[in-house]
Amino acid sequence: MLRSTLLAASRSGAVRGLVERTPLTRPVVKRFISGDDTAAAVATTGEVLADGRYVTLDHLGEDTRDAEQASGTVEAYEVLLRRLAEVGYADRAEVSVKLSAVGQFLPKDGEKIALENARRICVAADAAGTTVTLDMEDHTTTDSTLDILRELRVDFPRVGAVLQAYLKRTEQDCRDLAHAGSRVRLCKGAYKEPAAVAFQDKTEVDRSYVRCLKVLMAGAGYPMVASHDPRLIAIAHDLAAHRAPDTYEYQMLFGIRPEEQRRLAAEGNRMRVYVPYGDEWYGYFMRRLAERPANVAFFLRALITR
Ligand code: FAD
Fold first, then answer.
1. Which segments constitute the Proline dehydrogenase domain (predicted)?
2. Sequence-separated (6 or more) residues with CB below 8 Å from residue 85
3. Which among 53, 158, 185, 272 is annotated as catalytic?
4. Where are the alpha helices (H) located in 87-225, listed in sequence order?
5. Where does residue 156 fall: left (phi above 0), alpha (psi -120 to 50 degrees), or beta otherwise?
6. According to a count of CB atoms within 10 Å of the terminal CB, is the N or C end of the chain lower?
7. Which residue, 120, 39, 34, 108, is CA-closest to 80?
């Protein structure tokens, strides 16, 4: 119930105004978001890399309805990627891109524009010596995102994508993508989805995650286990027993279970942290609150006690 309300609020302009205008929100947002600009993102990247973890950077923004804004997002990624190369981080830091931030929802030729914009980011990533992973948004975008992935991989075979275990289609998508050279980031899924397309029950989502993980770990691709769930991490560890350590990785979000991130890295696992930055933090922040009721209490407590 609370999850649904928060996810509905994540797409409400009125609530967005309220949350963003509250000056006391900022310190709480900082737990999940690196900072507003490239300098903050690069500084956080340096801190994360220092203890042996890897990074993927997300320039925050989504649901763009403006072509200029979409192009601005591409430029932000280009600047970031040049900077990552300059400071020598590009071998351990890649970028994550939401296609809706680069034009997928534009009323005219959205998909074509998103493909061209994503291609520009891939060119910049390639020049920097790193790669791109396409985030996955709500289920109405899955086919379009996977089509764009296929197009990009023709020229940039290291481009990866996210699949969401809560979608009923995902086990088949995993089979389709479990081939050599294919990078798949498997997560549970963070959007409010209808029962027709998505499992609603937490246990069913977890079971689907395990089925998908089995397909990916048995395949020839590069599975990226994106979860903070201790049970799923233990299962991934067992399923990966036959694999070399550099043929898969664990991934978690910035600010969530950092000690576990460090533990996994210290044990010799490849552990990547998803680091979001930028001032368009609202949708991302609300999804983090929705994932864990305790975060709402944390948020409210911070508002009250400051
Ligand atoms: P859960 O059962 O939600 O959590 C397990 C445990 O992890 C909790 O008990 C708690 O201890 C901790 N935890 C989880 N979430 C939080 C939180 N917000 N705050 C504090 N503690 C928490 N979703 C998409 O739909 N599309 C994407 O492209 C996408 N990309 C992602 C990339 C990465 C690298 C990661 C890690 C997640 C991504 N997600 C994405 C989000 C994902 O779908 C889940 O919503 C999120 O990871 C929570 O699920 P969980 O597997 O951690 O399990």
1. 49-298
2. 127, 128, 129, 130
3. 185
4. 110-128, 142-155, 170-177, 202-218
5. beta
6. N
7. 39
Q: Please give the full DSSP string across 223-243, using - where no structure is assigned.
A: EEEE---HHHHHHHHHHTTTS
274 lines ligand 1 (CB under 6 A): yes
| 82 included as an active-site residue | no
Distance separating alpha carbons of residues 177 and 262, to the nearest angstrom: 29
Q: Measured between alpha carbons, how far is 28 from 123 in angstroms, rounded to an integer?
A: 35
State yes or no: pLDDT of 174 exceeds 60.
yes
**Cβ atoms of 180 and 280 closer than 8 Å:** no
Distance CA 211, CA 205 (A): 10
208-221: per-residue pLDDT in tens?
999 999 999 999 99
| Domains (range + CATH), the chain | 33-280 (3.20.20.220)
Q: For the whole prediction, is pTM greater than 0.90? A: yes
CA dist., res. 174 & res. 214, Å (int):
9
Whose alpha carbon is nearest atom 53 of ligand 1?
A: 229
ipTM of the modeled complex: 0.97
Q: Is 21 annotated as a binding residue?
A: no
